[in-house]
Amino acid sequence: MGESVRAAWSAAAGLAWSDPARLHHPGRTASLVLDQARASLQASLALADADIFFTASTESALTAIFERLPHRVVVTGAVETKITLDTAALQASTVHVLPVTGTGAVDLSTLDPSWQPQLAVLQVANAEVGTVQPVEELSRQLAGVPMVCDVTACLGRIVLPKSWSVLFASARDFGGPAGVTIVAARKSLGWSAPSASERGWLGGFPDIPAAAAAAIAAESLPAAWQAEASRAHQAIANLRQRISDRIPDVDLVGDPEHRLPHVLTFSALYCPGEALVSELDRAGIFVASGSACTADTRRPSHVLAAMGALTGGNLRISLPLGFDSQDVDRLAELLVETIAKVRADVGY
Amino acid sequence: MSATEIPEPQVWLDERGRPCPLPVIAMAKAAKSAHGSPVIAVLADDPGARYDIPAWCRMIGATYLGEISVPDDKGGSAYVVQISESAQTGASKSIG
Fold first, then answer.
1. Model ipTM?
2. Strand ranges of the sheet holding B63-69, from the earlier edge strand across to the other edge
C-alpha cells in the first residue's frame, strides 16, 4: 500500500465507521463514502458500462457472482486459481476444465459443443506465468454465454478483452489494501440496484475504509500505463534472453510474447526452489516460487503441473511499476551466480 | 503407455526419502554414464518428481515411458525413462 492509499484508508476509517444502511448522520456518511468509492473506481478503470461492487475476498466474489448467474454447467481452464476451481466445483453441478497447451493457454480444440455450458470462467491472463488467455475466442465459440474473468495482474498492465460480462480482482493486486475485492458487472446484467443494506457491498458487513483505499489505489494507476507496460515487456524479454544465453538447463515458462508485460517465471533443473528463494532473499530480492518445497501444501503449483513445466527450482519474478532497469541487470547477474552456487551446493 | 506396456527397467535408482532435486539429479547422472539407450527407473516419493521427471525428459531429449508401482512395500512411485544417445550430452531445451 502506498502512502496515499494508507492515508485514504485512515481517513475513511475515521469518517465511515458506521452502518451505511442506517439513516442517521454517521450512517449516511458511510454510505456516501462507499458510493463515492464505487463511482471513482468506475471512472479510474474506464468501466462506464459496468456497475461496481465490493466484497471481502475472491472467494466471496465468486460465490456472489455464481449466485447471480445460471451456473449448473460451467466451463473453465486448468490454470485458474485454486479458489476459482474450488468455488466452481462447489457451486456448479458440472465443471468442464479445459486443459492448457505447453505455454499455459487453454486449448480450445478440447471444447465440446455438446456441453452447452451456462457460464464460462476464464482469467484474462495467468498471474503466475503471465500467459494471456483466449477470452475473446472462447466467448465467440460459446456465443452468448456470460464470461466471468479474473483480471488479477491485468489492470493497468494489458488491454482487457471486450467480451467479459463480469470482472473481478483483489484490490491488493493494484496497490490497494487486503480484505477487498472489486467486482465489475456489465449493466446489461441488471445487477445495478443494490439494496439499501448492501450499498454495493456483497455479503457481510462492508469494510468501507478498504473500499475507499481501493478506489484511491485505482486512481494511482498511471494514466499512461501503456508506455510503462511496453518498457516492462522489453525488460522481461531481455531477461528471458539473458537467462537462456547464460544459464543452462532452464525451463522458461509461459508464452514469450502473449503475456503480462511484467512477469517472468522459470524453473532451473538441479536446484531446490527453497534454496533459490533464500539466496535471493538474502540479496534483497523478493521472489515467489511455484515449487513444492516452497509451498505450505508441499505440492507443486497446479499451474506449472497443468502446463507440463518443470516445477522444481521455480522462480517467479514480478517487476513493480516504475522499476529501475539497472535492478533488472543486477538481478540477471545474481541469477547466474545463485543458480550455479545452489547447484554446486546440492551436488550437481 | 499403459503400465503393462512399459518395458522392464535395466537400472533402478532408489531416491525415496530424498527431496527435490535429488531424484532428477540421480536420473541425470545415470543418463550421463549410460551406454546405449537403457530404460532407467527412479523410485521417488518427493511430490515434484511426478512432474519433474517427465519435464527433464522433454528438456534433455529422453523419452518418458510412464509411472509404475514399486515392487516392494516401502511406498512411493517409480518413474520410467528411456535414455537416447542425445540425452547423454546433457543438452537441454525449454518449451518457451
1. 0.89
2. B11-14, B39-44, B77-82, B63-69
